[in-house]
Amino acid sequence: MQQSPPYGQMPMPEQSFAEFAAEDARAQFIKKTYLHLAGAIGVFALLEALLLQVPGIRGLIETMVSGYNWLIVLGLFLVVGYVAERMARRAVSLSSQYAGLAIYILAEAVIFLPLIYVAQQLGRQIGVNIIATAAVATIAMFGALTVIVFLTRKDFSFLRSALWMGGFVALGLIVCSIVFNFELGYIFTVAMIGFASLWVLYDTSKVLHDYRTDQYVVASLALFASLALLFWYILRLALWFYMRSED
Predict the structure, then answer these.
(1) Which among 207, 235, 174 is positioned nearest to 21, based on CA atoms?
(2) Could you tell me the pTM of the whole model?
(3) 134-156 pLDDT, tens per residue?
(4) Domain that holds residue 55
(5) Is 112 domain-assigned?
(6) Radius of gyration for the alpha carbons in the chain, expressed in angstroms and rounded
(7) Residue 174 lies inside a defined structural domain of this protein
(8) Number of helices followed by number of strands (H, E) in the chain
(9) Within the chain, which residues score under 70 in pLDDT?
(10) Which residues are CB-contacts of 82 (< 8 A; sequence separation ≥ 6)?
(11) Is 15 helix (H, G, I), strand (E, B) or coil?
């Protein structure tokens, strides 16, 4: 949401948005956005490495995923993620925007713990770095989707309603799978990779069309969220593949 200008200052909506900004200002905004995205990825990776070294982390992970506890963890993640995103988007000060980004990265690091732990353990057993393989595939797909948006300069805002509807459907299926104790399977995982790819297209097009030039922290948070979703399901697919190959 665009903030109101200080008293006595006339609003200049077109000049404040990256889409209408001067070429050098727009280039600086895009550069800052992707540098912050790279920083967010680095902090996320560091947090995961540190969390996996915490004594007794296996017991904590087992508690997280046992019974209906995963529903609670998932619900807390959604709430914290929503609060962090709103904090970053609506904040007037840059420090508050960074606080929102930091909270979101931490929430992602926690929600990823069980999946990363399983991938790490299986990778050690079979001698394959599953996490690195999934990470490379994710970055490659994210990069290809980014190039598509930047070359075509297409506005993918028309996907918004479909993405939110699809998100609620996917969340409903995930909740049902936990409550009724059934596996969603690899077809769901593949479908979610496609769904996450659409989010990448949508969020990347927003970088070109919807953000102000001072919202690079918020833009990087949105990109990080879609990238994390893509990584989650690519890693799940990699786990499924390597588990099947071991059977």
Answers:
(1) 207
(2) 0.87
(3) 999 999 999 999 999 999 988 89
(4) 21-240
(5) yes
(6) 19
(7) yes
(8) 9, 0
(9) 1-15, 91-92, 245-247
(10) none
(11) helix
